[in-house]
Structure formats: C-alpha cells, structure tokens
Amino acid sequence: MSLPLTEEQRKKIEENRQKALARRAEKLAEQHQSAGSGSSIAALSSQSKQGPSHSLPKDSSKPVSHGVVFKQQKTSGSSHGDQRPHNPHSFHPSTLEQATGTWKRPEEMPTACPHHSPPSQVTLAGISPPLAQSPPEVSNQQLVGQGHSQVSHGAKSTTFDNSTHEPLAKAKSSQDTPASSSGQLPREAQLEAKAARPSTSGQNISDVHCGSGSMMPRTEGRLPQKLGASPRKAVSSQEGICVRDGDRFQVKIGYNAELIAVFKSLPSRNFDPDTKMWNFSMSDYSALMKAAQRLRTVTLQPLEASSVAQTGLPSAPSLTFVKGQCMLISRARFEADIGYSQELIALFKQMDSRNYDVKTRKWSFLLEEHNKLIERVRCLPQVQLSPLPKTLTLAFASQLEKTSLCLTADVPEADLSRVDPKLVSSLLPFQRAGVNFAIAKGGRLLLADDMGLGKTIQAICIAAFYRKEWPLLVVVPSSVRFTWEQAFLQWLPSLNPEHINVVVTGKDRLTTGLVNIVSFDLLSKMEKQLKTPFKVVIIDESHFLKNIKTARCRAAMPLLKMAKRVILLSGTPAMSRPAELYTQIIAVKPTFFPQFHAFGLRYCDAKRHTWGWDYSGSSNLGELKLLLEEAVMLRRLKSDVLSQLPAKQRKMVVVAPGRISAKARASLDAAAKEMTTKDNSKGQQREALILFFHRTAEAKIPCVIEYILDLLESGREKFLVFAHHKVVLDAITKELERKKVQHIRIDGTTSSADREQLCQQFQLSERHAVAVLSITAANMGLTFSSADLVVFAELFWNPGVLMQAEDRVHRIGQSNSVGIHYLVARGTADDYLWPLIQEKIKVLGEAGVSEANFSEMTEATDYIYKDPKQLKIYDLFQKSFEEEGSDKDLLEAVEAFDPGSTSGTSGSASGTSGSGSQDLGDWLDGDTATGSPEKKRRFEFFDNWDSFTFPL
Ligand SMILES: Nc1ncnc2c1ncn2[C@@H]1O[C@H](COP(=O)(O)OP(=O)(O)OP(=O)(O)O)[C@@H](O)[C@H]1O
C-alpha cells in the first residue's frame, strides 16, 4: 500500500501540472497563429491569447475545461474593462472563484451533477418564455466574467431583460481579432465562452459543469439516443445565438469548424467581413437550426419567438432544456409546472383535455391523460417533465383510468344495522357522513373534524361496525381515559361494562378487555404486550404521534401497521408544519410515501444545508390537501356544520382517579367519614361538608393541570378555566406561568378597572391564551366571546352560577357552538355535586327556565346511589345546598376554611412572565409529568391548515 502524498507534494505536483498546461496552451496558440486554419485547435489557440476558448481540446483524455464562462476579452482595452486574465496561468480555481463569486466546491454542487447531462444552455436570449412559468433549474450558466452580472441570473432565471442585449450591441464595435479565412474568431464581447482552464482537481466532465455553478438537468437515464432523438450535446459545447438583422438573421458564435461547414451549405449564406459574422435569409433558419441541433459541439439559441413569428416561418425546434413536474390541481386535473418549450407547447396542444390558464400561465389536463402526456414528453430530448408521484397516481387511480369526468367522490351509505341503535340514531347528519366515509375507506382514516364536533361518537360507531374484529385498542391522552370509558358506556349499551379495560398502570394487562383503553405514555411502556396485534385501533389526539422519534410514536406505529382498521382522531392534525402529518398519513396508508424524504421534498419544501436536510417548510399544500382528502382524511369545521350543532355542547370529563395521591385520598375519606358520623350537629356536618369540598379541590389539582396541558397540546388556543378554590386557581396560574402560556386571572381581588382591561387583553389576544377565572367572582358581567371553550376545573352547587359562567363565551359575538367541559373526579365531592346539579337543572328545565341537556350525562354517576353511606352524603349535600340562603352561608364557610377562595387574595396576574415555580411533579405522579411534553411552536400551521384545508 503506497503512502498518501503530503500536502506539499500535492501542491508541487499541481503547480507542475499547471505549468505544463499553460505551456501547452501557449503552444497551441502559436500553432493557431502560424496556421490560421479553421480547426478547433486554432480557435483555442487564438482564444488562449485572449482568454478562454469556446472549444474543448479534441483529446478528451487531456485536461478539460471547467466550463467556466468568461466574457471575451477586448483587446482595445475599452472602458468595459475586461478583467479576465490574459494569461492561461491565471486560470486558477481560486482566481475564478474570486472573479465570479459563484464557484462551487464539489461538495456544494447540485446533486444532479454526477449525472451525465445535456449541456447547460448559456442563455435563453432567443426565447421569451411566459414570465410566470416556473423557470427550469437548468437554464443559465452562472459563472461569468466580472462586470457581466447581467447574464448571471441564477439557476432559476430563464428570461432576459433588455439589458442583456445591450452589450451585444456594444460588442459589435469591438472586432479587433483577426478572422480566419474560413470564419470569424470569437471576439464578441457579449458572448460567453467556456474557459480553457486546465483542470486542477481531477474533475470529470460532469464535474466541470457543476464547477461552473450551472444547475445541470438530471436526465435520469432518459437518453435521447435511445429514443431516437438528436444526439446529446458535448458537455462543453459551444454556445451561440441567432439574432434578427433586418429581414435576415445573424449567428453570433465563436469559431466552430463543423458549424462553418453547415453555414457554407446554406444557399443564402453571406459573410460580413466588417462584423466578421455569417448571416442568412430567414428561409434558411429552420434548416440551420436543425443542422445545429445535430452538432454535438454547438448549442445555438434560437431567435426570439416574436422574431420568428414576424416572418411567418415555422419556428425552429427549441434547444432549451426545460425541466418541471406534474402537480395535482383538483381531483380531476393536473398541471405541468415547467418552463417554456415550443416543442412541449406543441405537444400540449395535442392533448384533448388541455386547458391554458392565462393567470398562472400553466397548462392543465385531465388525469386520464396523465400517462399519455408523460409518454409523449419522454420523446422530447430537451424536456424533462416528472410525472405525478406514485402515491398520487395510486390515490387517484380511478381518475387516471376514467374515461368520463366525475368530480365528486360518492360515498355509499354504510349498513349500520349491527351497531347499537342508540348510537346510530344519535348521530348528527354530518357524523353519519363521517362514519360512511370511514367505512368506504375500509376503516382506515384520519378523522380531523374540528374540536367538539363529536369525533368520539363517530369513532365508536366506526369501531362498532367492525365489532367482529375486536378486541379494540383505544390509545388516548391519559387525562381522558375515563371519559372514553364513559363514552363507550353511554353509546354502546350492548357492551358489557366489564368488558372495558382501562389500563391504569404499566403493570396492567393491555388485552384483558374487549375494549382496551390506554394512554400514549403507558403504551410506550408496554412493549412486550404489544406483540399481540389488535385488528381495530382508535388513536385519539393522533397528532401526539407527529414526531417519529418519540417513544409513544415508536410504540404505536408498528401496531397501526399491523391493524386492519385504524381510526385516527385529531382536531389539529398538524399544528406547525406539514411534516407533522407524515406519521399520521403512513399510519393510515403505510404504502404512501415509503420514504419521508420524498414527502419532504414535495410538501415540506425540503432544503439541504451543510448540516443536513431541513423539512420545516411547506410546499404544494394544495396538492397535499387533495391527496389527504382523497385517501386519508376527513375534516369538517364547526362553521361547515354549525346548523347541525347545539349552541352549547356540554361534556362531562371523568378525570383519572389514578392522579389522586394516596395522601389526598386519605384526606377525602376522612372528610367523607366525618360527614356520616352519627350525632354530629348540623354545624359539624356542614363543616365536614366544606372540608370534603376543599379536599376535593386539592385532590383534583393534578388532574386539572394535566387536562389543561393536554388541551394546550391539542391546539386549543383560547379557553376559560373556572375554579372556585384559591388553591386551584393558584396551581393553574403557576403552571401556566411555568409553561409560559399567556393567561389572565380574574378573582375576587381584581379591581373593576383591571377586570375590564384583562378581559380586553384576552379578547384581543391573537394567539393562545387561558383565562383563569373564579366561579363566584367572574361569572357575570364579562365577555369572552373570542373563546369557544369553557372548562370547569371544579363543580359548584348552584347551577345558575355555572350557567352564568358558561355564558361568558356563549353570548352575542359568539358565532361558534361552544364547548363546556366539566371535570368530574370519582370518589370526591363531585360524586354528589354532579347529580345534584343535574337534578336542579332538570327541574329548572321542566319549568322552562333553563336548558335541560345535562341529562345525557346522568348515567355516568348513577352508581353513587348504590351505597347507603353515599346516599347519606348526597342527602346532606342536597339539604345543605337547597336551604334558603345556603349559598351565602356556604360561601362564608368556604371562605373561612380557604381564605381567598371566594374573594381571592392574589392580585390579578397576567402575561407570560413566569418564574420557576412549583414543579408539576408536586401535583402529578411520574406518568403524568412525562405525559405532557414541553409546549413547542404550535398553532402557526394550524392557522394555515384551516385556510388551505377549507378555503372560504
Ligand atoms: N350526536 C351526538 N349526540 C349527543 N351528544 C353528542 C353528539 N355528538 C357529540 N356529542 C357531545 O358533544 C361533546 C363533544 O364531543 P367530543 O368530545 O366527541 O368532541 P371531539 O370532536 O372529540 O372534540 P375534541 O377534539 O375537543 O376532543 C361530547 O359531550 C359529546 O358527547
């Protein structure tokens, strides 16, 4: 094995090589001067005196040009000041790099570079493509001599403005290089030539163009030769341009023997000794262009389309390489997003379903013509039009194969006769449509209805349709495990309650029930149990799976792949960017975009950086929306179905009893016992009741905080949280401060002026915000109509007060159906307060002075009547809260027990400034603390999401 060269040795070798190459170039120049012949070597030598040549050395084994484009030197030394080095010795990469500023190191080269590609087309001066056409990446050479930035448009520019032509005109006056007998030597200052710069890096021909900074088109194995098209141009072919000159046209190009032979074959040829350029009649234009196209060493830019049109002659085939892709624009049509090419347009015009959009200046076609178009375009050597990705052609297979136009997807009515009639008859029309959609999709979908539209009832119905395939797995945020249990009990009376298994700890079994409900975090801790595949899986708040790297996602994805039915639920499937949708898409359709990178390139505006790829952007959202709607997702906004919704949607959220610590449980039990102690006086009983109420507040704090954090993580932007006890209000505000969530707080200590100002602050807040409000101090006189969700962290015995509190959002100015969530904890005072409240509302409803739709939730707490002790406590609650003037007395008693709970003691706090306050871990056990990850950037994409998903 030989030793590697030292840096110094390498430098020396390189220097020597440079010298040898320079000597060779000088020698060639001398040869040319003495011979004056029309050979390409002569041309090179001629240019070597002035600078780089247009031509490549014939011997391709010798070092080749780097394809660097230089402005031709002016020997006159005019004020145009050609700063190109006169001596080939100076053609060093570093010189070029400085001179042009666009030199690229190999590692910066476009990925397309290694492919053998058609030559970069120096300019598109002869073509006036529609401005709005997205420019091909391959158009312009970017390396030009100093002072000629007008031709360095960057890879994306295809158009030339008038200024581009200006130097062309000026150049006519500087023709001081002697012409050979058979043709003029390159001298036109406006023409860019490839530099005959010796290779210093061992780059191959492909690299040459990369080095020039040109974005080379990828041909991806589509060899023109194969298709019988014209042979591929040499990588460093000589570029020239056709220019109108009265009723004739000139060809501006450096010396090229083959081309001169062509010139000489044309009947109308004429050589102008003054300009030293060949010119022709327009009748020879077509023949010349066709002949030039066959020459490997020449790339001739055609005349501007307008010039050709004036003559009434058929235009010459375009020599410009254009590259683009097909994009879906509707369920039935796709468009070609590609630069201008005459040949391509001619082809487009042959398609039956063609349509040209004058606004976007793009052509579109019916999907059924997609394959035909792509096949035909493949025969155009200068055009690369990428077809729609396979995922799209699969998703829209029926449209691709269709012979007639059908713009709407017909969803058949599902046969729900096997599902509990109670559930089926309760479905609102849009919910029924959702169930139909899901079943039409084989039970795999992302149900992305807006929050509060009843995704739970729809999911249960869809799952119940596949009941034969159960056991069912339901993965949910831990704060709503028991709410899901209640929902199953409520909507599926046929389901034996004992067949519902709510997994509470990591030690529980995941498969004991017919319906198994588990939190995301516990799921990731139950790896061993996940080996048993579930055929039917519901994932609530499926955006919790947006990050493939998380343990919850890693645990869930294999399950979802194996499952036959996958029902994902999320009101906010992506909150920041389309990348967040990827896992949910492949969870529903594992065959879609097997590689994230392909998805990222198309929909995440993927960008390569030195550190890797950045997928945080978004692109082609219209197409992504179509794809999702066609194959993956159903999303309805509240505004879409408002007429079907009740003005208020109340929901009892059964908070997890597992969150209540042993200490809090013991305090609760002691307080409950006190209430049922015989011989206690009425005053003592009431005291015990107040203590029980207070202990309930303390015990619920972890559940309440967990629920609020889950709401925030689920994208709920603005909501109110009502609580009664100061200890609860304090805990919530502390946590919001700690998480830096913008919030306001209004309690009994808040002055009237501050109340109004805080209210305004909340109303006008554009981003997420939480209003933490005291049930007794902020239940009236305030408007929070910019929110549409109210959470009751605590229950209060007077339903009138609760309803007033609800109406802070449900009032004039509110255009949405509002959600009201009551957090109810089992084994606490809530067991008594909740039925008591419902009972009172029912009575008021019957009397016509109140709504009575709490009744749907009564079943959830029926169990309390089974225990005589509980019955006794319930009686006590009833008596205490129903006595004349009880509210005032009770409030005073509560206040005495928990100073600040009714009037509050902490001043109104607002804003996000939070100090490191008490850790959530104080309130929550381990599972919960890890269950609510740090709030990151969210909401931004959700805004866009709505606008692109449901255009107004
Ligand atoms: N058809 C219906 N009949 C009676 N109640 C319904 C119906 N649909 C939904 N609800 C009630 O509306 C409330 C909101 O429903 P649900 O919690 O399923 O909404 P969601 O879409 O899951 O909202 P989020 O995204 O906020 O979780 C619940 O109390 C639910 O019981």
TrEMBL record:
- Enumerate the PROSITE patterns for this protein: HARP, HELICASE_ATP_BIND_1, HELICASE_CTER
Residue ranges annotated as compositionally biased, kind Low complexity, are 33-48, 900-917
Instruction: Extract the SMART domains matched here.
Output: DEXDc (SM00487), HELICc (SM00490)
List UniProt keywords, sorted A-Z.
Answer: Coiled coil, Hydrolase, Nucleus, Repeat
Please list the residue ranges annotated as the HARP domain.
231-304, 318-389
Q: Which residues form the Helicase ATP-binding domain?
A: 436-591
Where is there biased composition of kind Polar residues?
92-101, 136-162, 172-184
Q: Where is this region: Disordered?
A: 1-232, 897-933
Gene behind the chain? SMARCAL1
What the protein does comes down to:
ATP-dependent annealing helicase that binds selectively to fork DNA relative to ssDNA or dsDNA and catalyzes the rewinding of the stably unwound DNA. Rewinds single-stranded DNA bubbles that are stably bound by replication protein A (RPA). Acts throughout the genome to reanneal stably unwound DNA, performing the opposite reaction of many enzymes, such as helicases and polymerases, that unwind DNA. May play an important role in DNA damage response by acting at stalled replication forks.
State the protein's name: SWI/SNF-related matrix-associated actin-dependent regulator of chromatin subfamily A-like protein 1
The family database entries (InterPro entries) matched by this protein are listed as: HARP_dom (IPR010003), Helicase_ATP-bd (IPR014001), Helicase_C-like (IPR001650), P-loop_NTPase (IPR027417), SNF2-like_sf (IPR038718), SNF2/RAD54-like_C (IPR049730), SNF2_N (IPR000330)
Superkingdom field: Eukaryota
UniProt keyword Kinase present: no
Native organism is: Myotis lucifugus
